[in-house]
């Protein structure tokens, strides 16, 4: 193969849990089809586009070709058959030095050395693809790398709600296992304010349809998103929506006003009053008290910065979090401990 035939696209973003599992990043779509959320800076300068099945297959072929090349060179360097070793990677770079500039090679190597077990479909909402195309691309990925055990992706609840149930089931059967959905809040006024493009009923419908289709559902919410003005409504309505969905995972992403976003400007203009770290924790306490689910509540991101009185993180950053309802009392006790401590102030900018 020529160097051009080794090329494949890799997007910038994936959930922390997918980095922790060293997922293969496979780009089915580019950027975000909605791209209006007032808190988000991720794709604001980029235009959304669908990729064709042929483009996606070509990327998968390039990944497979690089994988086989590294396996061959690794074995020639004394490594075990079928494995990728450091010596094999160095031999490849010595043979093809231009690959040092390949934007996805390090990701591919990391994935292979970590066991090549999981994949993440990029970018922000590949569920928006036509169902036959998405099924075809997923099937090709699974056929090319049959050892992959889990495939996940970001998706919008509105898209899941609009997909027919039989389409969601077909996508699930094709190999997509988990959907990461950005709930952010369950409060309708706040959803409108942040330009999320979906109501709480839409969030519930999308989440419930995804669960019913057999997906693992991971919902993200943002403590502090409504500022002091909406803190109780935000907490209670978020719990209400999550209770209705009962997702497998609930992941906390405390709000930070990111420079350049509309919400950052609103904070500067005094239209939104940021919560202190203790006030964010108090909001979290309200939400957790109201939460009646059977999934896992997770704090797997550095933005969950609250500290123990004696030092160290208050809440575990483990990707599997706290199992509800069994560990709900433990989590509430930890929050109570944190509230007794003068928490360090979060920064205004992006954390």
Automatic annotation (TrEMBL):
One of its GO terms (molecular function) is catalytic activity. InterPro entries: Aldolase_TIM, BchE-like, Elp3/MiaA/NifB-like_rSAM, rSAM, rSAM_sf. It comes from the Bacteria. Keywords: Iron, Iron-sulfur, Metal-binding, S-adenosyl-L-methionine. PROSITE patterns: RADICAL_SAM. PANTHER family: ANAEROBIC MAGNESIUM-PROTOPORPHYRIN IX MONOMETHYL ESTER CYCLASE-RELATED, RADICAL SAM SUPERFAMILY PROTEIN. This is Radical SAM domain-containing protein.
């Amino acid at each position: 193969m020529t160097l051009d035939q080794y090329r494949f696209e890799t997007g910038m973003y994936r959930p922390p849990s997918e980095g922790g599992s060293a997922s293969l990043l496979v780009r089915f779509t580019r950027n975000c089809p909605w791209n209006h959320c007032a808190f988000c800076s991720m794709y604001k300068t980029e235009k959304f586009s669908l990729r064709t099945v042929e483009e996606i297959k070509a990327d998968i072929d390039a990944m497979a070709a690089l994988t086989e090349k590294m396996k061959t060179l690794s074995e020639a360097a004394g490594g075990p058959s079928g494995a990728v070793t450091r010596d094999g990677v160095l031999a490849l770079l010595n043979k093809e030095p231009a690959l040092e500039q390949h934007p996805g090679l390090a990701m591919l190597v990391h994935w292979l050395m970590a066991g090549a077990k999981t994949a993440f479909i990029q970018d922000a909402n590949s569920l928006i693809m036509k169902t036959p195309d998405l099924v075809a691309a997923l099937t090709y990925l699974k056929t090319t790398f049959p050892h992959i055990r889990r495939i996940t992706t970001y998706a919008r609840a509105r898209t899941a709600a609009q997909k027919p149930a039989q389409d969601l089931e077909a996508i699930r059967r094709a190999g997509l296992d988990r959907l990461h959905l950005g709930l952010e809040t369950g409060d309708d006024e706040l959803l409108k304010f942040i330009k999320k493009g979906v109501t709480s009923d839409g969030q519930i419908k999308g989440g419930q349809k995804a669960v019913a289709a057999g997906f693992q559902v991971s919902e993200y919410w943002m403590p502090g998103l409504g500022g002091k003005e909406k803190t109780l409504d935000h907490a209670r309505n978020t719990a209400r929506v999550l209770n209705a969905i009962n997702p497998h995972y609930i992941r906390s992403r405390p709000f930070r006003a990111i420079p350049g976003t509309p919400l950052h400007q609103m904070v500067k203009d005094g239209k939104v009053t940021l919560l202190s770290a203790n006030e964010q924790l108090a909001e979290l306490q309200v939400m957790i008290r109201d939460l009646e689910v059977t999934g896992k509540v997770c704090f797997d991101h550095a933005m969950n910065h609250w500290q123990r009185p004696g030092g160290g993180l208050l809440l575990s950053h483990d990707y599997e979090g706290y199992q509800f309802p069994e560990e709900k009392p433990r989590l509430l006790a930890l929050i109570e401990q944190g509230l007794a401590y003068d928490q360090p102030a979060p920064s205004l900018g992006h954390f």
